[in-house]
């Protein structure tokens, strides 16, 4: 009887260790959980939202304009922002409208927040050349902005981010429960 208990305990310990290793592998290479801090992505994301970030997504396909990503801002902080410009894009804001490669682009994710600031230039006018010394987004770089343009430290302030700094794309918002969204598009 004692041998059976030892075998059973040994099996449980092995199973727990395997489960732990699988958990570490998934968390390290495929998905991570992130907490939103600050107001820079309001109203799309609020302080305290909990997100699942797909890390493998960008190893398989390219980053797309308007994706919401998490990236390493420095050695001890990660930021969540929206991709506005990808390599080769010419970005300009004029009269609160985004122009990408000369074409006017609608940003529906800003409409709800703009309602609180009628008549105000929400983003501010600029061209890439005015803030980054280049007229197009360089290869291997991204131009990112927060949705709360009045309160966001983003590429307008710190410049382009290297693609290799991208942790992954926000795929799921799981907290608060009432805002649970498995196919999070950030619109």
TrEMBL record:
Q: What Gene Ontology cellular component terms go with this record?
A: plasma membrane
* GO biological-process terms attached to the record: signal peptide processing
The cross-references to InterPro entries, in alphabetical order and at most eight, read: LexA/Signal_pep-like_sf, Pept_S26A_signal_pept_1, Pept_S26A_signal_pept_1_CS, Pept_S26A_signal_pept_1_Ser-AS, Peptidase_S26
Cell wall biogenesis/degradation as UniProt keyword? no
Q: What is its EC number?
A: 3.4.21.89
Every copy of the Peptidase S26 domain together lies at: 10-175
What protein family is recorded? Belongs to the peptidase S26 family.
Q: What is this protein called?
A: Signal peptidase I
Q: Which gene encodes it?
A: lepB
């Amino acid at each position: 009887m004692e041998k059976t208990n030892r075998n059973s305990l040994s099996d449980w310990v092995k199973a727990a260790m395997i489960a732990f290793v699988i958990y570490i592998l998934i968390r390290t290479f495929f998905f991570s959980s992130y907490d939103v801090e600050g107001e820079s992505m309001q109203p799309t994301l609020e302080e305290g939202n909990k997100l699942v970030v797909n890390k493998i997504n960008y190893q398989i396909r390219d980053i797309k304009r308007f994706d919401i990503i998490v990236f390493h801002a420095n050695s001890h902080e990660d930021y969540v922002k929206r991709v506005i410009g990808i390599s080769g894009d010419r970005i300009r804001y004029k009269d609160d409208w985004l122009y990408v490669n000369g074409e006017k682009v609608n940003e529906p994710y800003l409409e709800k927040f703009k309602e609180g600031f009628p008549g105000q230039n929400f983003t501010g006018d600029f061209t890439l050349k005015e803030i980054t010394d280049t007229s197009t987004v360089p290869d291997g770089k991204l131009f990112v902005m927060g949705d709360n343009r009045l309160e966001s430290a983003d590429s307008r302030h710190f410049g382009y981010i290297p693609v290799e700094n991208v942790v992954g794309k926000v795929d799921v918002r799981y907290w608060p429960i009432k805002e649970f969204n498995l196919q999070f598009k950030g619109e």
